[in-house]
Design brief:
- The structure is a single chain.
- The protein is an alpha+beta fold.
- The chain has 2 domains: 102 residues, Helix Hairpins, CATH 1.10.287.1260; 48 residues, SH3 type barrels.
- It contains 5 helices and 5 strands.
- The protein has a 5-stranded antiparallel beta sheet with strand order 4-3-2-1-5.
- Helix 1 runs antiparallel to helix 2.
- The protein is elongated, with a radius of gyration of 26 Å.
Length: 181
């Protein structure tokens, strides 16, 4: 009986030694990776805020992208530490992403339109625009929608897909209006 208990204790100790180091290493990777992701996100936010070339609307979006990309790599590293085949997990995540993308097709079209609006910049925050019958001062250009404030103080939430598909009249862009004679 004592020999069986000693053998069982020995097996438990071997398993704890073998897998315990992997668990400790995985926790260290996770904690350090989490801290690096937060640090990189904050540094990106500070750097983009100081830059005059980057619109204020893009700052939180880009800093979050940096943070989440690092976290994805950290999670993959932790899974690999445990010997999990990450290629199949990445394939499953890609399939799930495709299914979610198809389910959110309308929302993703607003997202794509938001990215196009941020790149083409037909209007900026503070400018007064008319886009598809919606007239107001631009308060925020988000990735999915743009917030306008009308002359009488009403909040208007305009999905970016409808903004991109409409003719945009920007009343604030030119300092003077020209005669076409």
């Amino acid at each position: 009986m004592k020999k069986e208990a000693d053998a069982a204790t020995q097996q438990v100790m071997e398993l704890a030694t073998t897998y315990g180091m992997d668990v400790i290493a995985a926790l260290a990777i996770l904690i350090i990776g989490w801290m690096i992701a937060g640090w990189a996100g904050n540094k990106t936010r500070k750097w983009l805020t100081k830059s005059s070339k980057v619109d204020d609307t893009l700052v939180p979006f880009l800093s979050n992208i940096v943070r989440y990309v690092i976290l994805i790599f950290v999670i993959i590293a932790v899974l690999r530490k445990f010997g999990i085949q990450t290629a199949s997990i990445i394939a499953v995540l890609g399939t799930v992403g495709l299914a979610v993308g198809l389910a959110l097709q309308g929302t993703l079209s607003h997202f794509a339109a938001g990215v196009v609006l941020l790149i083409l910049r037909p209007f900026k925050i503070g400018e007064v625009i008319d886009a598809g019958g919606k007239v107001g001062a631009v308060e925020e250009i988000g990735l999915f929608a743009t917030n306008l404030k009308t002359a009488d103080g009403i909040f208007v939430y305009v999905p970016n897909g409808s903004l991109l598909g409409a003719a945009i009249t920007n009343f604030s862009r030119n300092a003077t209006r020209y005669s076409y004679r």
